[in-house]
What does this fold into?
Amino acid sequence: MALISTEPDSALVPTKNEGEPFHCAFVRSDGSAVFADTLTEITAAVIDGYPIAIDPDGPTLDSDEALIARLDSLAEHAAGAQAIAAADATAAGRKFSEDELTAMFTEKDRAVAIAEWRDEQTPLLLLATSYAPYTATALPTGAAVTILDPSTERTYLEALASITGSELLIQGG
It folds into this structure.
């Protein structure tokens, strides 16, 4: 395991003991960063209590517990990002219907009860795991429907980056 965190004001781009660069990094919006060899290590640095065990062959994890941890984390971040998007739209003069407000503020780990999101300016943040093919519920349509996928560590980190102003960097891919 190789994992290094830097502070926001650090100009350091760390390398491993052998001088090689880390395979991946997660750069937060405040400029702090986590560098590691695996996405599992990055995810564990982002989610407190992420269920991994480090052994000489690399990190291992309980896949069900790990999925639940990613889903809970992403739902929490999505709820915050949704609230900010709604507040920004309201401040700009947008008035939402009761159905739109309900869709925006339904718990993010649950499906919303609308078929179409008509607002093209305000994103409706939804977790992929609440919709087909993971469930029988159809995904709402609309230009501003934003799907966040916690199903794998990579899709979780990409989704988290997209709603927090962070960046996921993966060497060679």
Observations:
- The chain has two domains: 3-61, 63-164.
- The mean pLDDT is 88.
- The beta strands are 3-6, 24-27, 33-36, 52-55, 58-61, 124-127, 145-148, 167-170.
